[in-house]
Specification:
2 copies of one chain form a homodimer. By secondary structure, chain A is α/β, with parallel strands linked by helices. The first copy, chain A, folds into 2 domains: 10-124, 3-Layer(aba) Sandwich (Rossmann fold), CATH 3.40.50; 143-335, Rossmann fold, CATH 3.40.50. Chain A is built from 12 helices and 11 strands. In chain A, the strands form 2 sheets. In chain A, strands 7-8-6-9-10-11 form a 6-stranded parallel β-sheet, with helices on both faces. In chain A, helix 3 links the parallel strand 3 and strand 4. The longest helix of chain A is centred in the C-terminal third of the chain and has 15 residues, at 301-315. The A-B interface holds A 128, 134-138, 193-199, 201-203, 226-227, 229-238, 240, 261, 263-265, 275, 278-279, 281-283 and B 128, 134-138, 193-199, 201-203, 226-227, 229-238, 240, 261, 263-265, 275, 278-279, 281-283.
Chain lengths: 336, 336
């Protein structure tokens, strides 16, 4: 099967989100894929601004917008009725809809009926799509790099996008492979692997990262952590399906407890290198750690640099904060 | 939530299965849960015989049967029309229906309509049920033993059922916990964990094996293998969710390649002990291997005994073929 793609350019819907920080998805889109973002649509009272032109539905449709992407979290995870009304109007104006909200668009009867009537597509990127094949674990061509973490939410998506951009800047053929809902919205393509039935997870990742030219890199977003009490199975299925020749460990400086899982310590970087290497023996026996990405946002610059220097000394690998210091030296090492 | 239970006693439906070996589910039911099996129902030409009394639907209903369990694989995985007709009649006679077939009962419009009209339940044990919570990985009371394998289909279910029976014979409080469709049909309770959305797998297993009395054993059926290219994520989620204090490695003598996965070697027993121990560090830091179960059906008895003796010498643990030699010494070691 072909994975569905979300048609660009996008009109990013920010609703009347009362807190700018809730518009993280929209901000990620505007930062990583500006060429896919035509404009933003905001309701009165919206606190967010992505720096894109403001357009209403008619203007955006006339300017060629193909999809209204919901670029902000909804209060309580639900879809407010006045947002749903605007989404109906967007379909009537000729736009598809893409959403990473917890509540599926199609569960709203008005949206489902309008989609059926207008023929527009509803992309719920938290739903997995499929059907997917069972994994086969056989070797395939192409180069693959996977982000792995010491916890959830430590910067795996950001690191993958930054490395992908750096490879493209160096004219190295590369594709970003989204494995979570925000990544799928940003890239317009991918699979939210945590929503897949467990038996098909590795097979879905094999399909997401297919055989490619020998010099082509798939840069694969990571999920969870191999030590995570709830999500380790997802992380392992992703590792086996991706068959990466290299991985990058992502970590947040100073985090000692798993986010949202009180009583569980985060993994050390060394522990994740060890587990990733051991668990790759069968499908990627020559796997190597290409470097370390550490989120140092909470530290002053001098301390951040000290943390990175310490990690480099301990592991003998390049360590960087991709937001602060870029990923050039990590990509140097990857390609060396 | 409470996990659904399949009401006993059962009338086991064998259809007109042309090959007795296809009736493995029915045979497992009659062997492991004879007290739940009232009778069998066979169509003309059926090659299987479970040694149960033959009854038609009226006789079985009058004798108190509560559920018609489909005890055989269907040709090509589909439901033959004359079987579907019999299932409709069973609901009209007052019986629920339970099935582990690939095709869901409810996908057949006649069966769905009859269930809605009669109020009978359709148990499709390959569907996961739910919703399930996210795992929390916190310690809980009770003792838990998990089967782990060097491959799929090496005897994990049989080993778990045999150990559970041995514990019960010794008056040790114990519950068998089914994690696959056949196990769920046999026990009337459980979760087919491979059908669960990956994010919820560990949480579902936590729910399946809840906190219990300090001296109570949950004997948990295993799935897949930690080295399996398609299913390792399922195995790891199951391990983390179960938090076992002990595990039994299940293996088939002489198997060198993963079943159905050409080009992939099976794991060694030692490799599975190592991986299970390493991957339990966080949720079950004191985990120990309680013994080894080896399927030696293809070997003459002298060779089988030699294989078991070799495994005992290599690992310093009791090794048995549960079918041939029982699990007494393994349970001795478990309880020592």
């Amino acid at each position: 099967m072909t994975l569905p793609s979300i048609a660009a350019p996008y009109l990013i819907y920010l609703g009347d989100t009362p807190v700018a920080e809730l518009a993280k998805t929209g901000a990620g889109l505007a930062f990583w894929r500006p060429e896919r973002c035509l404009a933003q649509l905001r309701e009165p009272g919206c606190a967010a601004d992505l720096g894109l032109p403001d357009m209403d539905l008619a203007q955006a449709a006339a300017a060629g917008a193909k999809t209204l992407v919901i670029g902000t979290a909804a209060p309580g995870g639900q879809l407010p009725p006045h947002w749903a009304k605007r989404i109906v109007e967007a379909m009537e104006a000729g736009l598809d809809i893409a959403s990473g909200l917890h509540v599926p668009l199609r569960s709203n009867p008005d949206l489902a009926a309008t989609a059926d009537r207008t023929g527009r597509q509803l992309h719920d990127v938290r739903l997995s799509g499929g059907p997917f094949p069972i994994g086969n674990g056989l070797p395939r061509s192409g180069r693959r790099l996977l982000m792995v973490g010491t916890d959830c939410a430590v910067g795996k998506k950001y690191s993958a996008l930054a490395i992908h951009r750096e490879l493209q800047d160096r004219k190295v053929p590369a594709t970003f492979r989204a494995t979570g809902q925000t990544g799928v919205l940003i890239d317009g393509h991918g699979i939210a692997v945590d929503a897949i039935v467990a038996d098909f997870l590795a097979g879905a990742v094999e399909q997401l990262t297919p055989a490619a030219a020998a010099d082509h890199w798939d840069v694969v977003e990571g999920q969870g952590a191999l030590i995570h009490p709830a999500y380790a199975g997802v992380s392992l299925g992703l590792l086996h399906g991706a068959q990466p020749e290299a991985f990058v460990v992502c970590h947040e400086a100073g985090r000692t407890e798993l986010s949202g899982f009180p009583g569980h310590k985060t993994a050390s970087i060394g522990e994740i290198i060890e587990l990733t290497t051991i668990l790759s023996r069968r499908v990627a026996p020559n796997i190597r750690c290409a470097g370390i990405c550490i989120n140092t946002a909470r530290l002053p610059e001098a301390e951040a640099l000290a943390v990175l220097a310490e990690a480099e000394a301990e592991h003998g690998l390049p360590a960087t904060d991709p937001v602060r210091f870029g990923v050039a030296k990590l990509v140097d090492h990857l390609l060396a």
